[in-house]
Design goal:
This protein is of the alpha/beta class and 900 residues long.
């Protein structure tokens, strides 16, 4: 990966105008397509297959007058709504609503036998308007007309009386952006200038991020032509795209400055920074994307769409970062300041601060670990009581008419009037539909938690009945949830007594079912995320302890962020400061989205911080010193990245969408906790406590797991070996000091192997043990990894370019496949042909045929044998030979890990 990105960086730097033009063209095409094909966003949340949703869909067929969206017009009059003057105006409003297109039915507050509602004090009355179609299908003109009718009623009412509109139709609003969100970008610019030292360098990450979010946002609106997309989705994608786009570009520019300080040319610096920091960016971006796509584990369509859209936004940010950033660096050329080498007598303040910080947290590591775990554990406690629900009109801004209506209804009526339940069932077998509905009404209104049953009626064809139930509690209260559970638990009783299979539905019941479904999805999603974390980090750090530590740290970050969200949104702590208009349950999908996004971001900080520590340990074997040096070298950039992400996320809280607010606060808290408390405090302490054991990994597991070169170590080796074994050399194989250890701890399988094999040359590896020969041949053909030494095959450094070598080097077990296997391998025109176990070819005719095949093709040949005499009549000639030492016995399990 690093080698590929190195070439990408060089080419993007050279073709900077073309790269910039391509990205601008992509933005223009995506934006134009979005403008032409945008079908709008949906702000409703539903889950197919739940009881409430299924019942609602059945009602849309059998009783459409009750299944569509509903709106309310509330009148509050001190003299009472039965006052003749008030009564006349309300009646006029009812007629206006009935004459509207798309209105299925209107119930006057005076039609109490049909569900009309007048408060016990007689001062408030509710007009209920049932519309044709669900909320997402109701256009803005219809909403505006209802709002205008309510405004006209207000104008006509006697002095002191009030009218307002609301209900489920107006319970959500399409979110937008405000000037407050821009403050996050202002803070990001300030941090970038301080970190990178110039406005030019600071502007590049911002351009990078804005271009990326522009494309991803346009693609989301373009996708509305095909899919239904929740209105929160583009804001989530925007928030994530800005944060990761700025951070990923910051890592690349910062590394570019480090390379310039080493004295390399701007183009070479851009290529190296793209290869090294770019590799880490790709890995970090992939972890975020995998976690976001993993939201599909819940099996909830709107959440899957949200995760995919956000993942696409992060993916675009990664692509733009590794292609546009080197192009922008190409435009800047020598105008980007190199970061000064740290050779001054007095170290910079930042370096002194971080050096002192890491010494403090690692001086008594066990104390640091206990304090951090204790503090974050306390912050996690409120998360145990976190309640989930879908937002209703009560979550809207205080001045919103629907919020005003919601609060006035709660003041004059039982709170359940803001979210009545509908109990429905098939009554086609009943001989007395009206009597049956009255019996059901009588039983239900006696249940605890029921404030009123204003309506119980069959549909016109008498095959479906509905009972409207008003709970005593608010729609998002635990009391209402218990009532829904109680009604559903009585299903066998109603079936046995009345022969009716009843279901509970309505806006409130749908929200309860959605919350329950999302709650059930948390555990399997957490298992997937934690398991993924362990596997990915084990591949990156080649360690057992580091991934476990990183995953436990992630869980602490998640727990504390959920705890803080519960304190603010559910218990009202600092609610006014964060613009929270009403304390209560948190949006249902917040925890699962937070877990997915924060997983990726936590892995970002783990990778960028701990890889430097691992690199120091590999070079020095000084466990404690590597923690200190690795921390100091990477802490400044990680701090800047975390501050930028925190600023971007927290800016979406004060004026943000009600759905996005808790997610944004959770991400801001999670980033702060994970970066500064977990990664920069707990991690150094744990690594110092573990010492050398932190980097231990079983050799067998090390061989099985693929390796991610996120720090570009392989690229540095390629650059170092560019002129090895000599400038301009073109040997097919060059090796020196190759060694492979025995996984069981015995003598090495082979060691001190070194030779040069020219193109079209023939080299023989001879030894006593067949498995040792095979291990060396598999190493030389890019199919096994040596534990030490230097190796280049066809100009490619191994193991960095193993895949390139395998595609050009054919490995043949000639002892098993004979001449036919050699013929098949030569048909693919390999640059190097490796023949293993040649001594096992016993048939003279087969040996002669192989010799003729090799004579005709003249490839570079590398052959292995335990007896030299057996191969002289197979090979056209032997140019050189390597004798393996006879003091080691190869282990068969080593060969089982080879890529054949």
């Amino acid at each position: 990966m690093s080698s590929f990105l190195y070439s990408v960086g060089r080419r993007a730097f050279a073709a900077r105008k073309t790269v910039l033009l391509i990205w601008l063209l992509v933005l223009a095409i995506a934006g134009g397509g979005a403008g032409l094909m945008n079908q709008g966003l949906d702000n409703n949340v539903s889950i197919p297959g739940t009881e409430a949703q299924n019942a609602l869909e059945r009602l849309s067929v059998t009783f459409p007058q009750t299944s569509g969206a509903s709106a309310q017009v509330l009148t509050v009059a001190p003299q009472g709504v039965r006052d003749p003057a008030v009564h006349a105006e309300i009646d006029k409003t009812v007629r206006e609503l009935e004459n509207m297109d798309g209105v299925a039915s209107v119930i006057s507050p005076y039609q109490e036998d049909l569900g009309g509602s007048i408060s016990d004090d007689g001062q408030a009355g509710i007009i209920m308007a049932q519309l044709e179609g669900q909320t997402q299908s109701i256009g803005q003109p219809t909403k505006d007309r209802i709002a205008q009718i309510a405004a006209d009623l207000q104008d006509r009412l006697p002095e002191g009386a009030q009218a307002s509109h609301g209900g489920p139709l107006f319970s959500t609003e399409i979110p937008g952006l405000s000037i407050v969100e821009a403050l996050g970008l202002v803070i990001a610019i300030v941090v970038l200038v301080i970190t990178l030292g110039s406005f030019l360098a600071a502007g590049m990450p911002l351009i990078n991020a804005l271009l990326g979010v522009g494309i991803s946002t346009a693609l989301i609106f373009l996708a509305t032509a095909i899919w239904t997309i929740n209105a929160t989705t583009p804001l989530l994608s925007l928030m994530l795209g800005l944060a990761v786009g700025i951070d990923y570009a910051l890592f690349i520019v910062s590394r570019h400055q480090q390379e310039l300080a080493e004295g390399v040319s701007p183009q070479e610096a851009a290529a190296r920074s793209t290869a090294t920091a770019g590799s880490a960016v790709i890995f970090a971006g992939l972890t975020v994307m995998i976690a976001l796509v993993g939201l599909g584990v819940a099996g909830i369509p709107f959440l899957t769409t949200m995760g995919i859209a956000a993942a696409v936004g992060v993916g675009i940010a990664v692509l733009v970062s590794v292609t546009l950033m080197p192009a922008l660096l190409g435009f800047a050329r020598n105008r980007i300041k190199a970061r000064e080498p740290k050779k001054r007598a007095k170290r910079p303040f930042g370096e002194r601060f971080f050096s002192g910080w890491v010494r403090a947290v690692t001086r008594f590591p066990i104390v640091t670990v206990v304090l951090v775990i204790g503090a974050l554990g306390m912050a996690t406690l409120p998360a145990a009581g976190l309640r989930l629900a879908l937002p209703d009109s009560g979550a809207l801004p205080k001045e919103d008419p629907a919020r005003v209506t919601y609060e006035r209804i709660a003041e004059h009526f039982p709170k359940g009037f803001n979210g009545p339940l509908i109990v429905t069932g098939n009554i086609v077998t009943s001989n007395d539909p009206l009597g049956l509905m009255n019996d059901l009404k009588g039983e239900i209104e006696r249940l605890p938690g029921v404030a009123d049953v204003p309506m119980a009626t069959p549909n016109p064809t008498a095959d479906t009945g509905i009972v409207q139930v008003v709970p005593e509690g608010a729609p998002d209260s635990e009391q209402t949830k218990q009532l829904v559970d109680e009604l559903r638990s009585l299903r066998p009783h109603f079936q046995e007594t009345y022969g009716v299979n009843l279901s509970v539905t309505g806006f409130t019941a749908v929200g309860i079912d959605v919350s329950a479904k999302l709650g059930e999805a948390l555990l399997p999603f957490a298992v997937v995320v934690v398991g993924l974390s362990l596997i990915l980090l084990t591949m990156v750090f080649r360690s057992i302890a580091v991934p476990i530590k990183a995953t436990l740290g992630y869980l602490l970050s998640i727990g504390s962020s959920l705890g803080i969200v519960a304190l603010v949104f559910q218990h009202g702590w600092l609610a006014e400061f964060f613009g929270v208009t009403r304390a209560g349950p948190v949006i249902s999908f917040m925890p699962i989205v937070l877990m997915g996004v924060l997983f990726g971001l936590a892995m970002d900080y783990e990778v960028f911080l701990v890889t430097r520590m691992r690199e120091e340990f590999v070079h020095t074997r000084d466990a404690r010193g590597s923690v200190h040096r690795g921390f100091v070298s990477s802490a400044k950039v990680v701090t800047a990245a975390a501050v930028i992400m925190f600023a971007v996320f927290i800016a979406f809280v004060p004026e943000g969408d009600a759905n996005l607010k808790p997610i944004a606060l959770g991400l801001a808290v999670g980033v702060f906790v994970d970066a500064f408390i977990v990664r920069m405090t707990l991690v150094p302490a744990v690594l110092a406590l573990l010492g050398d054991r932190a980097w231990w990994m079983p050799r067998k597991l090390d061989r099985v797991l693929p390796s991610f070169d996120v720090e570009g170590e392989n690229l540095r080796e390629e650059i170092e070996l560019a002129d090895w074994p000599s400038p301009g050399s073109d040997e097919a194989i060059a090796c020196e000091g190759l060694r492979m250890a025995d996984p069981s701890g015995g003598d090495p399988i082979y060691q001190d192997v070194g030779f040069l094999l020219p193109r079209q040359g023939i080299h023989v590896v001879r030894g006593t043990h067949e498995s040792a020969i095979s291990a060396l041949l598999l190493t030389l053909s890019g199919r096994l990894k040596a534990d030490g030494g230097r190796l280049k095959v066809l100009g490619y450094v191994l193991p960095a370019r193993a895949s390139s070598v395998r595609s050009r080097v054919a490995y043949v077990d000639v002892g098993e496949g004979g001449a036919e296997s050699v013929r098949s391998a030569l048909a693919e025109d390999p640059a190097v042909l490796v023949l293993d176990r040649t001594d096992r070819v016993s048939d003279p005719a087969a040996r002669l045929e192989i010799r003729e095949l090799l004579t005709g093709s003249r490839p570079t040949v590398l052959a292995g044998t335990t007896g030299l005499a057996d191969v002289r009549d197979i090979l056209p000639g032997i140019g050189s030979m390597t004798e393996l030492r006879d003091d080691a016995e190869a282990m068969p399990n080593v060969l089982s890990g080879a890529t054949r």
